[in-house]
Amino acid sequence: MIRQFGLSEILSILAGVQSTVMLSLVAFAGGGIVGLAIALMRTSERSWLQRLAGGYIDFFQGTPLLMQLFLVFYGLPVFGYKVGPWTAVSIGLTLHASAFLGEIWRGSIQAVPKGQTEAAKALGLRYFNRMRDVVLPQAMRISIAPTVSFLVQLIKGTSLAAIVGFVELSRSAQMIASTTYKPLLAYGFAAIVYFIICFPLSRFSMKIEKRFQVKT
User: Fold this and answer.
1) Using one digit for the tens of pLDDT, what is the confidence trace for 63-99?
2) pTM of the full predicted structure?
3) Which residues contact 118 (CB under 8 A, 6 or more apart)?
4) CA distance 42 to 40
């Protein structure tokens, strides 16, 4: 029996919003922690750390997110770690986010005037103290706009999680479309929801970027 597209179908699609938001937050938080480590490795004074972090970034930026999710979901069981869709997509998106955030923050760190680092060295500050007290506070301000822009991309990227059975916003819309035979309404409504979530973040990113340009 074909269902009509009504309030219950709309609520079913909206039920996937919570999973989308939660997955985005988990991936962004986890990716931020690992990404900061990657950024510090990329700007380290030790060349082997730079090469290691560079290879990590090259891999995750050079392969499709879909393939990365497949590798985690089907790869971990090969090593004896059977994981469910939620765990798999959380790990996959966290690794993906860490590579991009690491590169964004690496660029922000290197955008800090070299005179700041040289002055910190002249004061006898070691690498950790230079980063914590001098470089990172300035780099964080520079990185706000591109970081928020990446968060928008990450939210939209969660739609690929449906490919391994994780039910989020786009998967909810897909299931409603298959039962109502009204894909335009189902996917159109999901697109509107994505827009409502992402548009304010995009505007905030643009506003921060313009404010930074004015100050500089």
Assistant:
1) 999 999 999 999 999 999 889 999 999 999 999 999 9
2) 0.90
3) none
4) 5
